[in-house]
């Protein structure tokens, strides 16, 4: 645990100096995203007193009814990021298509994707929620910016992270040199480094899945969970514990802190073998964080970050966390 007082700003400056992984524009982008998260955190904390709870009268492109905070968080992220000159465009779970930075502002070289408010079903019951983000570089061979510019594999990300609004507000970040964690110091108004080089243990006795969907799963996922449930007497020879928060951000945070395997598998009700979670602003950033922490992330068969997206709001099955468990479950699937 880092004891010295290193702010996010100092961390980013030092990373920039040390290995050049964070060019100036990217540093500005990450600072701005962190500032937006601070502001979302304030809104979340006010809850009913700020009039931010409950449902808005609208539906997003996923066919989900939007919560007021889904829309507020989306607006906060856009307003914070559009004027700084670091971005060409943004994409979000809550917007049908991409948001190109308006002409009145300079265009930057980065693309920002976000799930502005993850865990919407937990907003009104005061359970941890968060913001997930992913940063790509705009391909420089194309003039202007199109949706196609966003359709890059997760392995092309240049930064990814999330901010969790829980008992503490915590920002977790990677730029490809490990995973660092920053806790919001509300008195200072700054994110302070509280953990560096986060590592996920390769083995675990804990899994996270929505068990109510079990009857719809494919055989390999059923087999894996059945074996966990069989405990000491079963083929795994150990008892497993289960956790399901229903905010990906909170379930992944737990896994980064103490290991575990998280899955949202494809189930038979969904066409096209897609899962529930979104590839570009949920699965990719979380997969990179998990891999950077020594874990693994697949869709059951392939590494998530190798998948070539075919559309902005593409969905994907997700298995991520402790390496040996992810490899075991992936091994239960037939190879492609
Ligand atoms: P979002 O609130 O951004 O739409 O994401 C919700 C996702 C994810 O956070 C979570 O893991 C999952 O949905 C929970 O799904 P169930 O309600 O089916 O358990
Ligand atoms: Mn949603
Ligand atoms: Mn989400
Ligand atoms: Mn969301």
Features:
single chain; 336 residues; D-Maltodextrin-Binding Protein, domain 2; 7 helices; 28% helix; binds manganese (II) ion
Sum this structure up briefly.
The protein is an alpha+beta fold.
Description:
The protein has 336 residues and is α+β, with helices and mostly antiparallel strands. The chain has 2 domains: 8-195, 2-Layer Sandwich (Fructose-1,6-Bisphosphatase, Chain A, domain 1); 206-332, D-Maltodextrin-Binding Protein, domain 2, CATH 3.40.190.80. The protein has helices at 8-19, 24-46, 68-81, 219-229, 248-258, 279-292, 323-332, and strands spanning 55-59, 65-67, 87-92, 99-100, 110-118, 129-137, 159-165, 169-174, 179-185, 190-195, 206-208, 241-242, 261-264, 277-278, 296-298, 315-316, 318-321. Helix 2 (24-46) runs antiparallel to helix 3 and helix 4 (219-229) crosses helix 7 (323-332). The mean pLDDT is 95. Bound molecules: 2,5-anhydro-1,6-di-O-phosphono-D-glucitol and manganese (II) ion (3 copies).
* CATH hierarchy class name of the largest domain: Alpha Beta
Instruction: Count helical runs.
Output: 7
Helix-residue proportion = 25-40%
Total beta strands: 17
- Unreliable stretches covering 5 or more consecutive residues: none
Distinct compounds present: 2,5-anhydro-1,6-di-O-phosphono-D-glucitol, manganese (II) ion
For the largest beta sheet, what order do the strands appear in spatially? 4-3-5-6-7-8-9-10
Please write out the topology.
Blueprint: H1 8-19, H2 24-46, E1 55-59, E2 65-67, H3 68-81, E3 87-92, E4 99-100, E5 110-118, E6 129-137, E7 159-165, E8 169-174, E9 179-185, E10 190-195, E11 206-208, H4 219-229, E12 241-242, H5 248-258, E13 261-264, E14 277-278, H6 279-292, E15 296-298, E16 315-316, E17 318-321, H7 323-332
Parallel strand pairs: 3-5, 11-12, 11-13
Antiparallel strand pairs: 1-2, 3-4, 5-6, 6-7, 7-8, 8-9, 9-10, 13-17, 14-16, 15-17
Helix pairs in contact: 2-3, 4-7
């Amino acid at each position: 645990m880092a004891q010295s007082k290193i702010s996010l700003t100092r961390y980013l400056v030092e990373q920039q100096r040390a290995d050049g992984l964070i060019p100036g524009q990217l540093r500005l982008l990450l600072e701005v995203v962190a500032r937006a998260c601070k502001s979302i955190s304030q809104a979340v904390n006010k809850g009913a007193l700020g009039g931010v709870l409950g449902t808005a009268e609208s539906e997003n492109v996923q066919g989900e009814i939007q919560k007021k905070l889904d829309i507020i968080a989306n607006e906060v992220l856009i307003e914070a990021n559009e004027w700084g000159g670091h971005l060409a465009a943004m994409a979000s779970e809550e917007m049908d298509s991409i948001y190109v930075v308006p002409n009145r502002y300079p265009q930057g070289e980065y693309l920002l994707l976000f799930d502005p408010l993850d865990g919407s079903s937990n907003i009104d019951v005061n359970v941890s929620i968060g913001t997930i983000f992913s940063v790509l570089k705009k391909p420089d061979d194309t003039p202007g910016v199109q949706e196609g510019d966003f359709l890059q594999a997760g392995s092309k990300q240049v930064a990814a992270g999330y901010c969790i609004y829980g008992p503490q507000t915590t920002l977790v970040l990677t730029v490809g040199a490990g995973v660092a964690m920053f806790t919001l110091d509300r008195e200072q108004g700054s994110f302070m480094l509280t953990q560096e080089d986060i590592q996920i243990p390769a083995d675990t006795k804990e899994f996270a899945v929505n068990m109510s969907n079990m009857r719809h799963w494919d055989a390999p996922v059923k087999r894996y969970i059945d074996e966990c449930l069989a405990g000491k007497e079963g083929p795994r020879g150990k008892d497993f514990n289960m956790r399901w928060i229903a905010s990906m951000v909170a379930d992944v945070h737990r896994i980064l802190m103490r290991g575990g395997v998280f899955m949202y598998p494809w189930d038979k009700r969904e066409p096209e073998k897609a899962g529930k979670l979104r590839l570009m602003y949920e699965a990719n950033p979380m997969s990179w964080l998990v891999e950077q922490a020594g874990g693994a992330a697949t869709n059951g068969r392939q590494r998530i970050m190798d998948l070539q997206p075919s559309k902005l709001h593409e969905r994907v099955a997700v298995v991520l966390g402790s390496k040996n468990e992810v490899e075991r479950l992936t091994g239960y699937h037939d190879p492609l």
